[in-house]
Amino acid sequence: MTRWVVPDPKRENWYWPNDAMRERAWVSDPKIYEEAAADPVAFWAKRAEEIVWFEKWKETYIDEPYAYKWFVGGKLNLSYNSLDRHVEDGKGDKVALIWEPEPPDEPNRILTYKDLLAEVSRLANALKRLGIKKGDRVGIYLPMIPEAVIAMQACVRIGAVHTVVFSAFSAEALRDRLLDSGARLLITADGYYRRGKLIDLKPQADQALAGTKVEKVIVVRRTGHQIPMHPGRDLWYHELVKGEKDFCPAEPLDSEDLAFILYTSGTTGKPKGVMHTTGGYAVQVYITAKWDFNLHEDDVHFCTADVGWITGHSYLNYGPLMNGVATVVYEGSPDYPDFGRMWQIIEKHKVTVYYTAPTAIRMHVKWGEEWPKKYDLSSLRVLGTVGEPINEEAWLWYFKLIGGERCPIIDTWWQTETGATCVEALPGIGPFIPTVAGRPFPGIRARIVDAGGQPVKTGEGGYLVLEPPFPPSLLRGLYGDPEKFRATYFGEFGPRLYFTKDGARMDEMGNIRITGRVDDVMNVAGHRLATAEVEDALSQHPLVSEVAVVSRPDEVKGEVPVAFVLLKAGAQPSEELKKELIKTVDKYIGPTARPADIYFVEDVPKTRSGKIMRRILKALVRGEPVGDITTLRNPESVEELKRIVGYKG
Ligand code: WTA
Fold first, then answer.
1. I need a surface site. Which of 13, 259, 436, 574 has the fewest CB within 10 A?
2. Summary mean pLDDT of the chain
């Protein structure tokens, strides 16, 4: 069993790559950081040369406020770089995608690069036949099946802009995104399996379409159960692609052509359409997948994120495929048929890279170490985490029980907006330290600043910001809302500092520890969610007069929403009503957004101008000091709330 790390002789729980890892690693000399810092633009140009361009770019970086651009004038295609490139290199018979269905007795679907190229081409040709052109938006509402990857690849292949919506999101959530993006076509499925149950998907899709611009719906047959099909509008995927040619040339796209839109939560109730363009995204996703996970041809990469999140876009689909490795797509739940499923998948497919979220690790900790111990995990080389700060206990459990104290843990900090990882320790360089993400990726300039935008001292807490040249895969805007783009990311510190909305501190070596969001965004079980979105959903209930949602820490999920609900006159609080409110949240967002606690209250603390003081509610549910309440319009409400939440601050 190969060992890849050694403990630091002086510092407890610090680890470094050993010789075996350094030898295998793409980068093992820490000088790469200085070299890249001396000329980040030249660094990225060099990285860009590793992917295939139909036409080389004329200018590497344009540093314009709010309109930075990368590889300007270059022409390329994400799907060409994911598929054709490898087939042309004679690697067409290499495995590209391993699909693991949830039902344990159902066979795997394994697609080689040649197979995947043929599938993607057939769908791309069908999309063209349906009139989908470059720039058209296509909604994708699919479970974790190969067609999710195929659909995304088919879109970018012809220059259509995909907008993937998490399949556990509700019809309302899907409708909002289809409306905002103006999608003309939707690709969905009949259903899927989760925890042994058949989950219906098509009826939700149908419900979401009212009022949208969607003309055609392509339906993948996954479960084969009876579903409603609307003649003239709905088309079965398998029938549609049957007669199509198995090759569709990849459209040469401009580096700054829109590649996809992905909706994410900001501080308001309305999700924002994050826009990613082609060239910068391709380059940064390619190189971070390669360097972070040290991907070589023989790797089997297993990213557990759903395709509905940016992690699924970048490190289940584009990153591994651009690197020519095998990517594992698992349909179902980690506890089905038992708590050992993920470890069984690793053993079965000889997974070498496993990338998951701290919330998942904490769940496994709870389920007990007997589960991973039943399986042979010796194929693993690199472990990754993403989505929220990882606590020391979970880190050490992951390191010992899953990595056998042999594998580095790559704690990657990034966001939907950055498109690709930005802060992490590289496997051939290290160090790997629990709760510390690592250094900014070479060529990325990150700083910790105070509220005035001034750098804080080493070790002091502050706000994490990015400086120009901005990462190539940083978002180029918010769909249809340039004003909001400026205000959200450059409102605090101006156009020269991209504000991440994360708190952080940095040590002497430049290692960054992320302390968490500083705005009203929660990370609930690895899902990003705004408190305002949950408020919005709850206020749809006819008996709710006013509502405030804050987050509190949770041992497994990281954070959970807590709701304070004021009812309309005459309405009575009851357990029944609580259940109805939960259903309302399911309806408008999805079960991931369910509040952990709902408190029916008479009053919430407000400023004199009538603004709800969520800061105080947050302190109350967290048992933290509530601070000064003298400026409130209704300070007496705080005493009452203390009693209701059982405050022991
Ligand atoms: C948080 C997920 C600590 C952070 C890729 C960020 C992290 C938000 C880490 C983005 C990490 C992500 N350590 N916190 N390694 N990675 N975060 O858009 O608060 O779903 O701003 O993107 O997750 O969440 P998003």
1. 574
2. 96
Which residue, among 108, 112, 117, 110, has the nearest Cα to 81 in the 3D structure?
117
| H or E segment to which residue 439 belongs | strand 439-440
Residues in the ligand 1 pocket, defined by CB under 6 Å: 264, 309-311, 386-389, 411-416, 437, 500-502, 514, 516-517, 523, 528
Q: Is the pLDDT of residue 270 over 90?
A: no
Q: Where are the alpha helices (DSSP H) in 508-613?
A: 531-538, 575-588
Nearest ligand 1 atom to alpha carbon 411: 15
In the DSSP assignment, the letter for residue 62 is: E
Residue 607: band (very low, low, confident or very high) from pLDDT cuts 50, 70, 90: confident
Mean pLDDT value across residues 173-180: 96
* Ligand 1 center–CA 522 separation, angstroms: 10
SS (H, E, C) 67-120: CCEEEECCEECHHHHHHHHHHHHHHCCCEEEEEECCCCCCCCEEEEHHHHHHHH
Report pLDDT for 259: 98
Q: Among 281, 307, 315, 413, which is best to mutate for testing ligand 1, by the most ligand atoms less than 8 A from CB?
A: 413
Can you read off the two tokens belonging to residue 67?
A: 């309109």
- Mutation pick for ligand 1 pocket among 395, 414, 433, 501 (CB with most ligand atoms within 8 Å): 414
DSSP β-ladder status, 353-356 and 521-524: unpaired
Q: Strand pairing partners for 114? A: none
Q: CATH topology for 527-645?
A: GMP Synthetase; Chain A, domain 3 (3.30.300)
Which residue bears the tokens 């290499």? 94
What average pLDDT does this structure show over 519-542? 91
Distance 249 CA to ligand 1 centre (A): 36
Task: Output the CA 215–ligand 1 centroid distance in Å.
Answer: 35
Q: d(Cα 258, Cα 470) in Å, to the nearest integer?
A: 18
Residue nearest ligand 1's atom 5 by CA: 415
The confidence score (pLDDT) of residue 268 equals: 74
Nearest protein Cα to ligand 1, atom 23: 387
Q: Which of 224-228, 321-325, 454-458, 513-517 has the lowest mean pLDDT?
A: 513-517
Contact by Cβ (8 Å): 617, 548:
yes
Write down the domain spans for the chain.
Answer: 527-645
Token reading at 591: 């079960």
The whole-model pTM stands at: 0.94
pLDDT band at 520 (very low <50, low <70, confident <90, very high): confident
Three-state DSSP class for 165?
coil
- Residues above pLDDT 70, as percent of the chain: 100
Unique residue bearing structure tokens 């069984």: 344
Q: How far apart are the CA of 502 and the centre of ligand 1, in A?
A: 8
Provide φ and ψ at 345, rounded to 5°: -65, -40
Query: Atom 4 (ligand 1): residue with closest C-alpha?
Result: 388
